[in-house]
Please model this.
Amino acid sequence: MMNGYRRERVATLHKENIMRAAEHLFLEKSFIQTTIQEISKLSGYSRRTIYAYFVSKEDILYHISLQKLLILQKEVIDIIESAASFQEKYEEFCEAMTRFHQASIQSFNELGAYGAYGTKDAEGQEPAVIADIVDSVTVICTLLAELIENGKEQGLVAEDVEPAAAGQILWAAISSLLDLIKVKKNYITAGLQMDDKQFLSYGFHQLLNSLLARRLPSLNGI
Model:
């Protein structure tokens, strides 16, 4: 048992070293431009060793994304379990999502462009990491549903809001809003006369108002 535990620890260390090197290259050169050979050179592991731990370059990206997603999941659990008010918890969640997206190599929309179909194991099956990503997002959406349900019980959230559906929609809407900042940053700055922070604050505010029984006033005249 001890030998098995030691082997598992060593394997985890090797995987983390490979992921760290890959993440550095993905950020420096982009995911598309990075090759397995470059990851091999920077990490100090042979291509054969890399493929012993990961099915493909996409598989490495999914594992990096899962790692960051699990950090977000832990933050959201802490937020939901805190003694803060409904609005404070919502705002803390938005801040956690912002940090998550800023730290992520690819947005979830971009990950979807590669699709689970691009990552298969030797038997042609999707790796477990994809199911783990889906499970983690599901946990976060369930926590959001719990937050919304609590808001309804306090009379803050509108009676016609369905918490489970609203949790899924809130995750998707905030993710898309944060992706939009990356894709249309110049337009937002010039066309809307807003900086990133103003735009996100406005968007988060509007999403919150879509849930509330009584709308909050506008932000600074926006």
Remarks:
- Confidence is low (pLDDT under 50) at residues 112-118.
- The CA atoms of residues 15 and 53 lie 7 Å apart.
